[in-house]
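Let us work through a complete example step by step.
Step 1: write down the sequence.
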Amino acid sequence: MIDRFFYWMKYYLGFSSKESRGFFLLIPVLVILSFTPFILRFFKNKEAEKTFLEFQSRIDSLENLSIQLVSSPLPTFNPQDTVRSNRNQKQLENINRIPFSEADSITLQIVPGIGQATAGRIIKYRENLGGFHSQSQLLEVFGVKEETALALWEFFDFYPQVYRKIPINTASLEELSAHPYISYGEAKVLVAYRGQHGVFLSSTDLLKIKIFKAEWVEKINPYLDFE
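Step 2: predict the structure and record it as tokens.
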């Protein structure tokens, strides 16, 4: 049987006798390695089951004694792990909440998780946009995560405010493409279409340009001035 295996390895795979024997000895090692994850998972699940049964036993014992459980008897089951921290409460008591539109890169740094660089990017993005009309726009800033955004709204009030709009019917190619929501290619199409078909009366006219999706038109609409 082994001789036939060596013959097959030599005839079909071109292995030498030495290479065939080496590969044959390697097979048991490969088999053991392939089963190792399953073996480890089995023992890990056994240990987890044992820990859970111990935890459940302690819970039952406490309930039988009419003791109300306020914390877990096991450190691995600490309910406080899921409770949101109020670490910002003291800071909030000592500051005046101001509108986000009035915040600068200095005042933004009071928010945990926002340093000088992130604060600068937020202010720059707000300025390039012409103001925020939705809280969700903060997540468009590079480096701002959802938890950071939620923390920021604990310190600052948000009022939708677009303080600068683009005059869509007179803006140049460079002015249009300078807005974060309008690429250079999209700006070229807008200018070319305006030159051929006349002024845009509303955002509905932008949908006549078939390559533009309604979602994109809706996104840029708050920043367009059709006067």
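Step 3: interpret the result. Confidence is low (pLDDT under 50) at residues 76-85.
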